[in-house]
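User: Hello, can you help with two protein structures?

Assistant: Certainly.
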Amino acid sequence: MKILVHAEKTLDSLFAIPWLAEFFSLLGLARDDFVVFDRPTRLSSLIVAGTSFEENHFSHRAFARFCNALGDRYGEDVSDDRPVYLSRAGFNSQMRTIRGEHDVVSHLERAGFAIISPETLSLRQQLRLFSSHRPTTGFVGSAFHNDIFCASPVGIALTCDGLVSSNFALMDRVNDARIRYVTTPGIILEKFVLGQPALYRLEDPRRVASHLIDLVTARAWEMQKENHPDRVVYGDAFTLLTAHQTWLQIDRQTGIVVHGSGQGERIVKVTVRLGEQGWAALTTSVGDCLSVERDNAQGVIVYLRYTQRADGRIALFSDETSRFLCAQPDGKLPCDRAEPKEWEFFWLVRNAVTHSTADL
C-alpha cells in the first residue's frame, strides 16, 4: 500500500532533503512507497492512522518506544562518559542568539565537559546525543528534542526566559526522562522583533558555567519534586477573571497560559480548583498540556500556591520561586512578580464544568 502525503511539496523535493531521506531509509521506506496527488483524486479506500504525538497537546508511550528503537538500532555514540554540553555558539539560529555563550563553552571545556555542536553531526550521531548514564546539558532548543531517541535520558536544560515548550514536557513524561529545566542566571533579552531571531546577553558567562557545573555535580536531574500529600484539591472548578476583565485561557496549538476574551476555535479557558493547604490546580476541561511562562511549570495539571483576599480574589504564585502570576496588558501571563498588586489578583467565577477529585 502506498503512503499518501498530503502536501504542496513534490516527492522529489521531499527526498532532496538529506536528513529526511535518511530517516525514511532507516524505516525501510523509499520514494516509490509514497504518493502525492497533484489533482483531485477519488479513492476507493483510505486508512487514516491515529497519531502517537501531537505538538503541544498529547503524547503516547508508543511514540517513545518507536523513537527509542530507532536510537538503539541506528544511533552512533558521540561522546564518552563525560558530561555533554550542546553548544549553540556557532549555530546561525533563526530562533535566538545568545551573546556570551562562547565564554560559557570555554569554562565548561576546561571543567571537563565534552562540547558538541549538534548541527555538525550526522543524523545517526544526533540519535545518540542523550544518554541515561551521563548528563546532556545546554540551552534548551530543538536539539533537546533528540532525547526522545534515548530511554530515560538525564540532563540539564537552561532556559532563556523561563518558558519551555510543552512539547518537552509531553516527551519527557512518556519517555521517563529526567531533564531538569532551570532559568539561566543573569540572562537579559536585548532585542526582540517579531519574525527575527531574539537576541539575549549573558551578564556573567562564568557564573552561568559555574551554575551548570554545580547542577551537574549535584546530579540535579535526580532531584525530583517531592510528592506533596497536601496537594489535595476538591469541589467546583472555577474560571479566573483578570483585572482587565479577561479570562485565563490557552491556545490549544501552544498550551501557553495567557489571558483574553475566551473566544476562538482553538481557545480553551483554564479552570482552577483550590485545596485547604494553599494549593491551586490549573487545568482545562479537555486535559491539554499547559505551560506557565517564566516558571518552567508544565503538565496537564499545573500546581501553584495561592493566597486569597477578603473580597474573594486570589493571587497565584510559584512554590519554588515565590513569584506571582501577572496578567499583563499585552495578554501574557508570566510568573515573575515579586509581590501581588492589582494585575496579580483574579476573581473566581464558578464554572459549569466540574471534575471528580480523582481527575487530579
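That covers the first. Now for the second protein you mentioned:
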Amino acid sequence: MSDLDRLGRPLRDLRISVTDRCNFRCTYCMPREVFGADFQFLPRAELLTFEEIARLARLFIDQGVEKIRLTGGEPLLRRDLERLIAALAPMPGLGDLTLTTNGSLLARKAGALADAGLRRITVSLDSLDDEVFGRLNDVDFPVSVVLDGIAAAERAGLAPVKINMVVRRGVNESSVLPMARHFRESGHILRFIEYMDVGHSNGWVLDDVVPAAEIVGMIDAEMPLEPVDPNYQGEVADRWRYRDGGGEIGLISSVTEPFCSTCTRARLTAEGELYTCLFGVSGHDLRAPLRAGATDEELAERIRAVWRVRADRYSELRSLATVRLPKVEMSHIGG
C-alpha cells in the first residue's frame, strides 16, 4: 500500500517514457519550429536502460502501482522494446501493462508486442482525412498506415484498441463526427481529448479548446449517447455509450472539467526524472542515485518522499499565470 499525497491520493498509475524522440512533428506536441533538424535529443547514455526501468518499475509496484503505460516520444522507436515489455509483464502486482503509440510502426510490431506480454494499446489518430491529419502530424504521414496498425493490433489480441483524438478548434473539429462514425461498432473505444497547455512550445490558447460538452453534443445530435459509470476510481476519461448499443466513446476534459482530485498518476521520463503532474515544472532525479549504487530501499524511500508531499492540481488552478510557467514538454514527460 502506497503513502497518500497531501490531498489524500494514492499512487496507482505509472507512465514511463522510453524515448524523447518521435517521427511525427504534431503541432500540439512537437512543433517543427521548435523540434527541428538541429534539436538535441537525449544521448543514448542518458536514457534509462531497460534493466534500470524494470528495477524502478518493480519499486513503484511495491508502492502500490497497478498500471504501467509505456510512452514517449514515440515508444516504438526504442529498439528492442519487446525486451522491456517481457521484463515488466510478469511482475507480480501489475494488473495492466499498456502502451501509447502514433501507430506508424504498429502494423509490423503488434504481434511481437503482444507476444512479449503487452495487454492493451492506445493509438493516437486525430483525423481520418489525410489532408487534416497531415497538417497535424506535419510529416504527411497517411491515415491508412495508422488504420493498418490498429487492425494489426486487433489481430494480435490487443483489443479493444483505444484511439485518442486531440481536438483543436479551427484545425480538426470537423473530423469529430467522421471519426465517431468510423469507429462506432468497431469494438474499439474512441476517446476525444481537449487540447491542453502541456509544455510551452505549442502556442496554446483557451480559444483553441473544443469543450468536451460540445463534442458530446455534436455526436449525440446524430448518434444518441448516454453516460456510463467509470470503470475504476481515477479513470481519466468520462465514458459515454451509444443508446443503440453501438459501442462507447470517452472524453478527456482536463481543461473544462479537471479531474485532479482523483489523479493517481506519476510519470518517469526517459532519463529517469520522476514527475507527479503532466504539467510539472521540475522533476526528481532517480537516475543519479540509481547509478550511484542506491539500494532498493533507498530508491523506494525517495519515491515515497516525493509522493508524500505531492499537492499538484494544475488543471483546477489553471490561470494565465500557470499557463505561462516553463512546463516540461509533453514529448519529454510522456503525455
